[in-house]
Prior knowledge:
- Helix content is 44%, strand content 15%.
- By secondary structure, the chain is an alpha+beta fold.
- The chain is elongated.
- The strands form four sheets. Strands 1-3-2 form a three-stranded antiparallel beta sheet.
Amino acid sequence: MTQRDRLRQLIIDFCNERQVRTFSLRELSRKYKNYEDIGIGGKTPESTVRRLLQQLRDSGSVIFHDRHGKRGHYTFCDKVLLDYEMVSVDGQDCKLSPMKSHAKEYLFEIFGRRRRLVEKAQIVLGPECMYKRCRNTFNDPENEPYTEVHHIRPLCRGGADAIWNLSVLCGHHHKQAHFAHQQERDDLEKYLLGAVRERL
Length: 200
Ligand SMILES: [Zn+2]
Ligand SMILES: [Zn+2]
């Protein structure tokens, strides 16, 4: 493995850890100090890394930003999916194209949730959609109401994975909570926080 390949792997690890593909050399250096782990030594390891980043840019693995705002940042753009960009469905990793974190959170809530917390939410908060007087809830093949458990304040925005931050929604209102216009999402969030408080 060449130094360049090792740096590429290091960048993948770094992006996975932070769940974002854009980084600066300073951030990378703060984390990996002297880059000894990938065998880069010498007095000026950072200039070696800068040179390797140049090579990675030439081969299309990273983009260098020189526009205002992101100046000095790199974006990893290899067409491999990072671990955090995959969603597990019934234990199988599904590869999804890179998508926004709130969209991923939506899929995670539908397919990857811990069963116990979902059941607890449905017992405590009720078996039907909590949004206003919604009548959208339908029955599943077992004749149980089909609902989805949603984090009112999204996990990806620092919301807690706790009962007071959970709500029970029908498929339509759950989708609305994630994908509607910001104002609509804010209204829903406010309403649900109040509705949960009443039921706890
Ligand atoms: Zn949700
Ligand atoms: Zn509903």
